[in-house]
Amino acid sequence: MNEQLNHAPCGFVTLSKEGILLSINQTLVQLLGYSPDQLVGHHINVILTKSARLFTQLYFFPLVTVQHRIEEMYLSFANVNGEEIPVLINATLSQDTDIQVITCVVIPMQRRNEYENQLIISKKLAEDALKETSKANSKLEKALKDLKENQQKLLEVNKQNEKFKRDTHNELKLAKKIQERSLPETISDDHIEIESYYFASRELSGDIYGCYQINKHRYGIILLDVMGHGISSALITMSLQSLFQRLITKGAGAATNVVIKELDDHLHTLFHNNQDSWHYCTAIYLIIDTDKQTIEYTNSGHPPAIFQNSAGNQLELRATSPPIGTFEGIQFKIETFNYDKGSKILLYTDGVSEPLGFHRLGSLLKEHSSDSLIGLKEKILQSLQNEGEEKFKNDDQCFILIDLK
Amino acid sequence: MNPNILNRNNVNIKGNGEQTMIFAPGFGCDQTVWKSVSESFESDNQIILFDYVGMGNSDVKAFDPNKYSKLSGYVQDVIDVCSALNLKNAIFVGHSVSGMIGLLASLQHPEYFSRLILIGPSPCYLNDLPEYFGGFEKEDLIGLIDMMDKNYIGWATFFASTVTNNPGRPDVANELENRFCSTDPVIARKFAEACFFADNREDLPNVTVPSLIMQCSEDVIAPTVVGEYLSQHVPKSTITYMKATGHCPHMSHPDETIQLIRDYLGEFPSEVVLSLAYE
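Predict the joint structure of the above. Result:
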């Protein structure tokens, strides 16, 4: 080996195709801490770390065999003490088929290697961060997908709800029709004329009334208001109605307190073991005898009906007992008084008295006592329309006007 | 034939003859490594060459990091190629880790293969002392993977092919165009992890296809003791010791490699092989 190459500022090595060291320059021998005799004739594995031995078998020899040259391959050499020396290696395989020699230039790169190590660490950190980001991203995407699915489900449920609501609405409309059909016809003859108004705040009402001619001279008029409104209250009114209709018409005019007592018993039976569905009910029941010109009544917790005689004096038919369905064993009393022709009676539920006020009802009756019953009814409705406060509009409204001729 | 598989694995079919030989490249390289050896069998055999997904000119888009994080992913590539070509009783020649891949493929589909020729195989590279000496400690293999990272295999060779356009050396440019040993660094790393940390010692006694183990001299990757371990544990195996040194005798010593394969195939007339394969 010429002197210049022997002491060049880089390692210089020649190898056989099998990897046997044929020559090695002084620079590299010194770097590795061997003497040339210890290396020449041995396999290059002697000066490689174990990882590098693997790598040269996998890459260096195949590449140099096929490509005949290698540029900038990173390898780690091991010195005589087994310490690692990172190097860059360039190699060529001579084309002369007789002497196939691999010529290598080796540049130690301890400092550059440190620098590259740092770069690789940073790269790995960046890749990990990216992985975390994409993991978070895919989680978000999944959440978004779930959200969309849930939204879709909600829309589906909403659609079902809408359909259910529509169906229920139609059902209620039908029920309302049935409830209204069950209301009695108004009565009008030589001795008595009856007008009524009935309005359900929702589809169904908790108010119910009945007017029946019991016999030639006797008339039974009943008005009830079941606590609350809507379906549950309406169902109770229907069950009460079928009962009072039978009691009043078939019972050949049982006394007012007897009828009310039966209704009270019925409510107690209905909710005997079921506190959750408990409802109570106010009721007023009048029997008018046009022959004797007497009025008999029982008022069970109902707002006072207004009686007005032909002279325009008014009397309140106040409650004689608590509402029915409240306490068991209530004694229901009967009140009786006489009337003269030209007297009027106004029965109403709180859905009418609350927006107008009790006194307003009394004065309406007084002011328009000369009007026909229809006219009087119109006046009350007008007042309800004009003066009734909005907050009362959602209560069931019902009133009955009686003209005693 | 499934053209998707043939494209995916860059399958090339050459040669003439009744008998099919399939050549499987070792770690990190593509089918061009077989050039010297496979050409000598072309006159009397049908030759199948292919690249594993992620290597050579295979379809890199088909690389699934999960599938190819284990040897089973590469085993599936071999099975896919055999199935796409409807191979029966093929002679499988596998270098290095491909020897193990072929062996594992034969466990699933023995009917595809009549003989396995394993060049420098190893069932396990890690030492498991005192029972087993594979040649390496874990740190050595991690060091190898670090060294691959620092050599950025892949873009470095691609880069080289564009800049070392040396008109005086057309052969260099040519080989580089074939993307020899060029692999995406991420893929190469996955393959390295799948290969070098695998342990298939338990599968060896189940092999039914007759095999030849070609053991190189002074092979640091698959030392002689590993070849002997294989020959003792694989039924119907024969071991032959090569004069060739190193780990790639098919490249460094093609003549010896060819001769030993021919010697082995000559020992097994095809009728005998068939009866053995269906035992």
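Chain B has twelve helices and seven strands.
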